[in-house]
């Protein structure tokens, strides 16, 4: 059973053609967006987050499971940027948005990482994410005004 973060990803279950289309679209757009320069990626993600409702932890976790079940490559090492973007896009199709984060650990070795948060919690990540410094965070307007 593949593992993403602290979650064991269940084996693929039968999904509808509509859901396959949604997942394929989110993954394709996630892949394309992951190749953008940081400034343009920030503007794009901010535009997607606009007018979305904040996602719950459970909704975000379900989206991670869906993306990683559909695309095993998205669960692999080095795929965090595309996976996190794809999860955000999939959730946006339902009018929801998690907090999307990009950061680096505060101690060596240096490595950039992208992840999502919802309900004030980091979703589906292994290790001590508290040691990461956030370089970019995109949340919904509602979350920004509540802080």
UniProtKB/TrEMBL annotation:
<dbReference type="Pfam" id="PF13471">
    <property type="entry name" value="Transglut_core3"/>
</dbReference>
<dbReference type="InterPro" id="IPR053521">
    <property type="entry name" value="McjB-like"/>
</dbReference>
<protein>
    <submittedName>
        <fullName>Lariatin biosynthetic protein</fullName>
    </submittedName>
</protein>
<feature type="domain" description="Microcin J25-processing protein McjB C-terminal">
    <location>
        <begin position="27"/>
        <end position="137"/>
    </location>
</feature>
<dbReference type="InterPro" id="IPR032708">
    <property type="entry name" value="McjB_C"/>
</dbReference>
